[in-house]
Write a structure and sequence with these properties.
single chain; mainly alpha; 3 helices; 37% helix
């Protein structure tokens, strides 16, 4: 894998709007090269027979299946209400006319 050059680090810093001086550019270029080499070595570890995973252990879905069931009709829902107005619950007004 080719090393990251100082100019490439300067370009990345410019894209990220990070102001780096010359000493920081010289210091970061070799470090970024080492990081990329490490990532590249990890890519070679998993073979074609290893499926990609997001977790080390298999996870199971703990929620119930989302099954559509019939709901209540408006009449059934309002059957226990003390007062109904136009298929809606009717409740006493708690705020006066002053608003």
């Amino acid at each position: 894998m080719p090393e990251i050059t100082r100019d490439e680090v300067a370009h990345l810093a410019n894209l990220a709007r990070i102001d780096l001086d010359d000493a920081e550019l010289d210091h970061l270029a070799p470090q970024l090269s080492v990081i990329l080499e490490s990532v590249a070595s990890i890519n070679g570890v998993a073979g074609d027979d290893v499926p990609p995973t997001s977790h080390a252990l298999p996870l199971t879905h703990v929620f119930r299946d989302d099954v559509v069931t019939p709901g209540l009709t408006a009449e059934q829902a309002l059957s226990g209400a003390p007062a109904v107005d136009q298929q809606r619950f009717s409740v006493p007004r708690i705020l006066g006319d002053e608003q």
